[in-house]
Amino acid sequence: MKRILALVVAACLPIGAAGCGGEPSAVVPPDTAVSSAPPVLEIPPLAEAPSTPLSVPPEPTRSRVPADCGTFVLKQGEALPAGAAGCLLDAAGAKRVATLRVTAPTVEGHPIPTTYAARADGRIDVTVDSRTDPYGEQAMTRRTCATADYDTARGIVVGDCANPLRVEE
After folding, report:
1. Distance of alpha carbon 77 from the chain centroid
2. In angstroms, what CA-CA distances link 82 with 92, 138, 159?
3. Gap between the Cα atoms of 25 and 89, Å rounded
4. What is the tens place of the pLDDT at every residue in 73-87?
5. In sequence order, which residues have a C-beta less than 8 Å from that of residue 19 and are 6 or more positions away?
6. pLDDT tens digits, residue range 106-162?
7. Are 74 and 154 in the same domain?
8. How many separate domains does the chain show?
């Protein structure tokens, strides 16, 4: 920017202010010596940059993109993979957003989809859709839980949960 400003000023000085949109300059008599060197223009330095940044970039470990811990359809007696549970539990512990979808059958074999969503505050929303279970509640509910753990036989076990709320689609 300094160089451009100096060039514009230097270009305007030899032809007078009239060439740059100002008032016409006085005519120099022919017997007066005129220097052919361009004039030197002193430009004051810019103000110092602040020593601290104006905004702090997000920590590289806290991604703003929600993690997808996978979608699993389990058969009778099949367990949720430990890696999938670890993905969700690690995200909740780090207060990062993540989602895990698990469909597991009831004793009678009816599929029950459950979505676990780790929130940025470390809690986990658990949404259960039991509408396909003729012996169950036949509703979609969501509850928010403060604790969660992984059990190899039962999958994700949540605790300290709020009362379930019905979810309307």
Report:
1. 38
2. 15, 29, 19
3. 78
4. 999 999 999 999 999
5. 11, 12
6. 999 999 999 999 999 999 999 999 999 999 889 999 999 999 999 999 999 999 999
7. yes
8. 2
